[in-house]
């Protein structure tokens, strides 16, 4: 965003200014940021910042903490609407299994679900060996460049079709951007039950994931283990992931919303043949 020159009129609409301010909180959203600092980050004048913050405060979107401001409770309510019906219950049910996965691996672990052609991170646990990654709770990433996303796409016909229709956004020089290559990976996930990511969402980050399958063969979520490339023990973590995801899936029948993908045992998957044909062209 270009810096507003001193004395120049800021022609951005009020909603643009409000969004710029909300984004300016960054990692201090819960602790609070001063008005002057928010104005600097959002490239707004201090008087405009005061005016927009007052409007946001009246609507419960931000709140005061001393002389600073932090994001308000109403944003948490908005954030809850991102999840599909029953997804909070799903997350709560699977958190103990995600904790088991962290204890077993001591690496960063994720729980995610599929929304269209994106993954939404429902939970993330990490310890002392964490590394920076683009994932965050409630955040989205394109499914095709993450291990959890590929683990989910392989079991979701609609999501796979949407992703393969492209375009596939490139996040690093290793991101898969060719539909045939993605189709080949999804075929492999269907065959092996495990997905891999190698510096596709962020350089230097590796990840392995497995789907959490419901009683009808549909993937209701995915779990992953991630860390710096070269440190992840693929063989050991794969076995741990399979074991814990299998145990988690056995708890889910009573929780599955009616709109989840349901696959009758033995009937195959609607995109199996289409994926194989597309993969063969690569």
Brief overview, please?
The protein has helices at residues 14-24, 35-42, 46-58, 73-80, 87-105, 147-153, 157-164, 179-192, 234-249, 272-280, and strands at 62-65, 68-71, 108-115, 118-125, 140-142, 195-198, 205-213, 219-228. The chain is of the alpha+beta class and 282 residues long.
Structural features, described:
- The chain is α+β, with helices and mostly antiparallel strands and 282 residues long.
- It folds into two domains: 14-78, Arc Repressor Mutant, subunit A; 87-280, 2-Layer Sandwich (Beta-Lactamase).
- The chain has helices at 14-24, 35-42, 46-58, 73-80, 87-105, 147-153, 157-164, 179-192, 234-249, 272-280; strands at residues 62-65, 68-71, 108-115, 118-125, 140-142, 195-198, 205-213, 219-228.
- Helix 2 packs across helix 3 (46-58), helix 5 (87-105) runs antiparallel to helix 9 and helix 8 (179-192) crosses helix 10.
- It is elongated and about 60 Å long.
Supply database-style keywords.
282 residues, disordered N terminus, Beta-Lactamase, single chain, 2 domains, 10 helices, alpha+beta, Arc Repressor Mutant, subunit A, six-stranded antiparallel β-sheet
Quote the average pLDDT: 82
CATH structural fold name of the largest domain: Beta-Lactamase
Low-confidence stretches: 1-7, 257-268
Describe the main β-sheet briefly.
6 strands, antiparallel
Give the % helix.
40-55%
Shape: elongated
Order of helices and strands: HHHEEHHEEEHHHEEEHH
Name the CATH superfamily assignment of the largest domain.
GAF domain
Q: How many strand elements?
A: 8
Q: How much beta, percentage-wise?
A: 15-25%
Q: Give me the CATH architecture of the largest domain, please.
A: 2-Layer Sandwich
């Amino acid at each position: 965003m270009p810096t507003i020159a001193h004395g120049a009129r800021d022609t951005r609409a009020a909603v643009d200014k409000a969004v710029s301010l909300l984004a300016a909180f960054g990692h201090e959203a819960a602790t609070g940021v001063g008005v002057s600092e928010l104005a600097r980050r959002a490239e707004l004048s201090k008087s405009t910042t005061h005016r927009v913050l007052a409007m946001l405060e009246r609507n419960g979107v931000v709140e005061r903490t001393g002389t600073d401001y932090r994001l308000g409770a109403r944003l948490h309510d908005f954030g809850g609407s991102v999840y599909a019906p029953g997804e909070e219950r799903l997350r709560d049910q699977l958190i103990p299994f995600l904790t088991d996965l962290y204890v077993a691996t001591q690496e960063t672990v994720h729980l995610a679900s599929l929304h269209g052609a994106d993954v939404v991170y429902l939970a993330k646990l990490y310890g002392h060996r964490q590394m920076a990654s683009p994932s965050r709770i409630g955040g989205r990433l394109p499914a095709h460049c993450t291990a959890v996303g590929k683990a989910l796409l392989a079991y979701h016909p609609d999501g796979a079709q949407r992703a393969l229709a492209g375009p596939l956004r490139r996040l690093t020089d290793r991101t898969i951007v060719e539909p045939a290559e993605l189709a080949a990976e999804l075929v492999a996930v269907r065959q092996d039950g495990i997905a891999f990511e190698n510096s596709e969402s962020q350089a230097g980050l590796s990840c392995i994931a497995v789907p959490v399958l419901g009683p009808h063969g549909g993937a209701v979520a995915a779990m992953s283990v991630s860390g710096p490339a070269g440190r992840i023990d693929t063989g050991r973590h794969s076995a741990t992931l399979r074991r814990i995801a299998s145990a988690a899936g056995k708890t889910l029948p009573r929780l599955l919303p009616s709109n989840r993908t349901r696959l009758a045992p033995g009937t195959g998957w609607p995109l199996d043949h289409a994926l194989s044909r597309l993969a063969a062209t690569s």
